[in-house]
Task: structure prediction
Amino acid sequence: NHFLPSYGATGGNCPGHLKSMLCNYFAYFPVKEGKVVRGRAQEIYFAEFDGIQDRTVYMQVVGE
Result:
């Protein structure tokens, strides 16, 4: 862990970054008639690997 001037805090979140790389940080879901299309056993989760923080989550809908 060392102080990161650009971050303004001690950088000690290596495990969080590695988990994020393994799980990816974005996803695409098809939408049909205003509803997300997914399989019966599929669920959508939001995982926070960097500790409890205030976050803004963005969703972008692209298509016809």
Notes: The first helix runs from residue 14 to 23. Residues 2 and 8 are 11 Å apart (CA to CA).
